[in-house]
Amino acid sequence: MKMLSGKTVLVTGASRGIGRATALLAAENHAHVIINYNKGEDQAAELVDLLCKKGFHSSMIKADVSSEDDVKGMFKYIKENYSKLDVLVNNAGVMKNSLLALSNTELFNHTIDVNLKGMFLCTRHAANIMRKQKSGRVINLSSTAGLNGDVGQTVYSASKAAVVGFTKSAAKELGMYGITVNAVAPGLIETDLIKHIKADVRDKMLSNIALGRIGIPEDVAKVILFLSSDLGNYVSGEVIVVDGCRIM
Ligand code: NAP
Hints:
Helices cover 46% and strands 15% of the residues. 44% of the residues are buried. It is of the alpha/beta class. The chain has a seven-stranded parallel beta sheet with strand order 3-2-1-4-5-6-7, sandwiched between helices. It has one domain: NAD(P)-binding Rossmann-like Domain (Rossmann fold), CATH 3.40.50. The model has no long low-confidence stretch (mean pLDDT 97). The protein is built from eight helices and seven strands. Strand 2 (32-37), helix 2 and strand 3 (58-62) form a beta-alpha-beta unit. It is globular. NADP nicotinamide-adenine-dinucleotide phosphate (NAP) binds next to helix 1 and strand 2. Belongs to the short-chain dehydrogenases/reductases (SDR) family. It comes from Methanolobus halotolerans. Residues 7-187 form the Ketoreductase domain.
């Protein structure tokens, strides 16, 4: 028996990085996975193809999570093609490092629109389905930047700190329907998101990780799997840090 047998799982931003690893692990645990993407159509198609070759069921749906119309369309597709939604992973996110003095309103709006509004829109639609089922799991991607802050990350940190407040409130509101809402806060994970970080900065960050290595997407996907499965039945309103233990 696999951990997500018979479950329908939507992962936003599943074309790359943590979202891709999460979708792959969910499928390997026998979930029906819905792979959301925005710009990465080829990468999403490649993942669907890979899952199909492994004998797993999945589908892909394009939607910009910051667009109300796109999200509405995505959930219309889910209702029409799947009779239920058991797990929503709000993973889609953007990060651009910028010192406060250099951060403009455009950067602020885009970051908040994708990282916060996107999560809000998807959760609202998912909760409508999950309330009727009287069950569901919502897992939101926060970040250690949202808990501790960092230089050059005022905007990104604000968006990820807001994810924590949203998660805790939604958990309290939706618990009565058997819906759990949790956040995962990764530290430094090897994906496209951190590609731009200079070698000397990376080395400095690495020296601050007790486990002595940068995380990989699968490290985060495993925690998301736990929260999505029966193992996480009685966990809600929590933020689980996945950062290899920051020393200072
Ligand atoms: P990534 O490799 O850059 O992937 C980002 C994903 O988000 C892509 O699949 C991208 O899809 C999707 N996305 C971006 N904008 C979107 C939009 N408007 N609508 C729908 N999808 C959109 O990033 P990652 O490192 O895997 O990050 C995943 C999540 O973990 C993010 O929320 C991030 O903030 C969080 N996180 C990451 C780290 C880290 O060190 N990597 C640390 C802490 C938190 P397309 O390519 O299809 O557009």
